[in-house]
Amino acid sequence: MKTNKKELFLKCIDAINDKIDQYQTRMDEIKESMENNDIKTDYDEDNKGEMLSDFEKNAGYLSEAQEQKEDLSKIDPDYKNERIGFGSVVETNKNYYFVSIALGEISMENGSKIFAISTKAPIYKALEGKTTGDTFTFNDEEHKITGIE
User: Fold this and answer.
1) DSSP 3-state assignment of 69?
2) pTM of the model
């Protein structure tokens, strides 16, 4: 395989940490704005309700991202999987996949692109338990598994 599982794992950790930081920063900004609004006597009740809604929405996103980070931390990047499961890096004749958390496309230093998918992704259901050399059909296309790490 042409991938570096440890590098991929660290890139995913960085990506989820970035998300966590973004949600926390947004929540801090909303909180500060709400506190500043309370000092004024002419604040708009609708605006305050909207800010509270945004705060709660970001709090939900933050909680979800923290859960994803916790799930990701359960992966041992030095472990080599023989069958596809959580923590596997899968090379097919069409794409690379990292069965971890749903982060989308990750760009590696060597220029390759790897899709970080969760075990809830529809393609994972087609991949689960397979080994190198197996084939599977997804979206009416046949794929061959050429490597697992």
Assistant:
1) helix
2) 0.87
